[in-house]
Amino acid sequence: MAESKRRPEHETGPKDERSDMLGVQVAAAASGFVLSGTMLGMLVTMPVILDTNTDGLQLCRQWARAFDYGHVIGPALCGATTLLHVYAALGSRTHPWKRTSRISRRQLAAGVTTLGMVPFTLVAMTSTNNSLFALLAQGASGVADLASVRDLVGTWSRLHFARCVFPLVGAILGLGVIFL
User: Fold this and answer.
1) Are 116 and 135 in contact (CB under 8 A)?
2) Where does the chain cross the membrane (predicted)?
3) Would 34 be classed as within a structural domain?
4) Domain-located, residue 4
5) Distance of alpha carbon 44 from alpha carbon 29, whole angstroms
6) How far apart are CA 109 and CA 75, in angstroms?
7) Rounded CA gap, 149 and 138, in Å?
8) Do 160 and 88 contact (CB within 8 A), yes or no?
């Protein structure tokens, strides 16, 4: 048998600090892509809902169900993705004067970008969400004509698409860190 020619670590030098966080960095980027992809699924769902409804109340109900499913999955996945990015950023800070500080800053930027969807939701989307929920709560008597409900759901869809960009950009930033 051939004898192994692997040299001990004390002869090869210290292990690259970045390699310790590679799995976390990959998980953070993958999680961001899953989050964004899941959210982008609404790009197919909402046009189908808009094109096939002839009743404003039914359109509100379908929007609310889609909203509920996203509300269950989205915040948890956003939080987990952000925490993975932050953990990877903090874990790669063993030597701040080396290349790892640049990695750390970019990883942290990926996390902050992903988390940016939360304030965007609160500032840009809350009024549209509240309007749709108010129509739903009023039932058949409160739902205006189908055209106005379609306008609200269309506005929500455009804002939702903009919100999807945050985790997508975060995932791309996180993926870029892997190749630094």
Assistant:
1) no
2) 21-49, 69-88, 108-126, 161-179
3) yes
4) no
5) 24
6) 19
7) 13
8) no
Structural Rg of the chain based on CA atoms = 23
Torsional class of 14: left (φ above 0), alpha (ψ -120 to 50), beta (otherwise): beta
Instruction: Please list, in sequence order, all residues whose beta carbon lies within 8 angstroms of the beta carbon of residue 177, skipping any fewer than 6 positions away.
Output: 25, 29, 88, 103, 106, 107, 110
The position carrying tokens 């739902």 is: 143
Other CB atoms within a 10 A radius of the CB of residue 26 amount to: 16
Q: Is residue 2 part of a domain?
A: no
Q: What is the pLDDT of residues 73-126, one digit of tens each?
A: 999 999 999 999 999 988 865 554 455 678 888 999 999 999 999 999 999 999
pTM recorded for the entire structure: 0.82
Residue 156 covered by a domain: yes
Q: What does the buried/exposed string (b/e) look like for 73-102 if buried means 16 or more CB atoms within 10 Å of the residue's CB?
A: ebeebbebbbbbbbbbbebbbeeeeeebee
Residue 148's domain spans which residues? 19-178
What does the block give as tokens for 174? 């996180």
